[in-house]
Design goal:
The chain has 353 residues and is an alpha/beta fold. Helix content is 51%, strand content 12%. The structure holds zinc ion. Zinc ion (ZN) is lined by residues 122-123, 170, 243-244, 248, 265, 269.
Length: 353
């Protein structure tokens, strides 16, 4: 009989609040992550400059490292630069790219990583995965979950609203991803981790059903927490299954077939999720997705992000190849191009009605 419950890799502190960044030094000292304040802080060359000017006076013992891009080379360079300099932790202060680079570099030198997100565009801010560009396109690397997660709502509001909207698309796509997981359980016998599914689904539902918008603190708090919980759900399941299904395969297909033309990840997975719900015959759910995406100013069809219907059909057809071994509604239905075209025509009718 098991007597021990399982332990979940998770941050020791999650702070989502207005002005959270101003007290970064105090928070790291209180939590015994860094008593001396000796930190390696990774920032971008762009928006990072202003953040550095703001934070430098309260973090006098920190060293600042400008990260030029989200490549594995940049992550390895950061690791080499900080190695052997006796830091307490690596802080990734920025958007997704900076956080992913910092996560990887911290893992490489064996230091804890503190994520300070300056936008909410996707659920990678607190996940055990670092997504980096490499010679073959883009790779996902397993890394430890951040030891602390800080989201300053005042800073989030300064980012372009498009980045908040994208996070909404990524959060609500969890619901479609869980439907794929449950379908796979039924058809292929793949085990579903009930706790990971509960966390990811609740995160998605809380954003889907929240009446607020991108400008209000209550909504931004719920969205931030949903993205954090999605990351922890991935730590629990050990892969991206709770947050990534057909919705993400379709988005990856856009990225691979049309490099350089992609919209934001969250914009693409939002469309993918609404279309996947439609394919499942979940008309009410698909309609609700479309309604919520529209209410927040997100696209609901490929043309709104600069892709033709033909390109969409080709992306959906190619999608299963982006994630071999993952069973979703796309693998289950195994639609031909003509059938995808018909299904899309149907989807368009429902979103216009
Ligand atoms: Zn995602």
């Amino acid at each position: 009989m098991p007597v021990l419950t399982r332990l979940i890799p998770s941050p020791v502190v999650v702070d989502v609040s207005r002005g959270a960044m101003d007290d970064l030094a105090g928070l790291l000292a209180d939590q015994r992550i860094s008593a001396s304040g000796k930190l390696a802080i990774a920032i971008s060359g762009g928006s990072g400059v202003a953040l550095r000017a703001k934070l430098e006076p309260v973090l006098p013992h920190a060293d600042w490292y400008a990260v030029v891009d989200g490549t594995i080379d940049s992550a390895v360079k950061l690791a080499d630069d900080i190695k052997g300099r006796r830091y307490d932790a690596v802080v990734g202060l920025g958007g997704g790219k900076i956080i992913d680079v910092a996560k990887y570099a911290a893992a490489r030198v064996g230091l804890p990583m503190v994520a300070v997100a300056t936008n909410l565009s996707h659920d990678g801010i607190c996940s055990p995965v670092s997504i980096l560009d490499n010679d073959n396109g883009r790779g996902s690397y397993g890394v430890p979950t951040p030891i602390a997660m800080v989201i300053d709502l005042d800073v989030i509001k300064e980012a372009p609203v498009r980045f908040i909207r994208a996070g909404i698309g990524d959060a609500i796509s969890n619901i479609s991803a869980i439907a794929d997981w449950e379908l796979s359980h039924k058809i292929t016998g793949e085990p579903v981790d009930g706790l990971a599914a509960a966390m990811a689904r609740t995160a998605g539902e809380s954003v889907l059903r929240h009446p607020g918008g991108c400008g209000d603190d209550e909504f931004l708090t719920v969205l931030s927490e949903a993205l954090v919980l999605s990351g922890i759900a991935m730590s629990i399941s050990g892969d991206s299954r709770p947050s990534s299904g057909a919705c993400h395969e379709i988005s990856h297909a856009f990225d691979l077939l049309h490099p350089g033309r992609s919209a934001l990840h969250g914009e693409q997975v939002g469309i993918g999720a609404a279309f996947a719900m439609h394919l499942r015959g979940a008309a009410e759910q698909s309609g609700l997705f479309v309604e919520v995406l529209r209410r927040h100013g997100l696209p609901v069809g490929p043309e709104e992000i600069g892709f033709s219907v033909d390109e969409f059909v080709a992306a959906v057809e190619y999608a299963p190849q982006t994630r071999p071994g993952r069973f979703t509604i796309l693998e289950h239905l195994n639609l031909s191009a003509a059938e995808i075209r018909d299904a899309y025509a149907d989807y368009v009718k429902t979103i216009r009605s």
